[in-house]
Amino acid sequence: MDSHIQMIESDIFIPAENMEAALDDLYKAGYASEKLHKSLEGFFWFECYHVYCNDKGLYLESYDDKMGYDREIFLTIAPYAHGNSLWCDKDDGSQWKWCFEDGNLVEYYPTITWSLYVIE
Questions:
Q1: What is the rounded distance in angstroms from the CA atom of residue 30 to the CA atom of residue 35?
Q2: Does the first or last residue of the chain, that is N or C, have fewer Cβ atoms within 10 Å of its Cβ?
């Protein structure tokens, strides 16, 4: 059974001047096909990501589908992406954030702290 992943929050942006290079790296890594994906925006739409694109660049807005090779895609585009994080929730209850820092993809996991409150 495939896992389901939902992107809860995203502020990821790929500047227009980096979009062609990001798509070229996705071609080289084998994640994108030159026959199917004519643009970076088209690649993300094909992969079921909701994106917004304008003359400044591509904004990754949401995702709610089966988990595939998402981590590998973000590793590939990490040198071109800006923004703090993609906050993700998996159908098994696990959560994490993928962050782009200095051209690298970094994963963060939440810590739950239980506090004691006396109910009277």
A1: 12
A2: C
26 SS3 class: helix
What is d(CA 109, CA 97) in angstroms, rounded to the nearest whole number? 7
- 22-26, Cβ contacts within 8 angstroms, sequence gap of 24 or more: 22/76, 22/77, 22/80, 22/81, 25/76, 25/77, 25/79, 25/80, 26/73, 26/76, 26/77
Decide if 73 contacts 5 (C-beta within 8 A). Answer: no
Confidence band, pLDDT 50/70/90 cuts, at residue 120:
confident
Instruction: Work out the number of other CB atoms within 10 angstroms of the CB of residue 76.
Output: 21
Model's pTM, two decimal places?
0.79
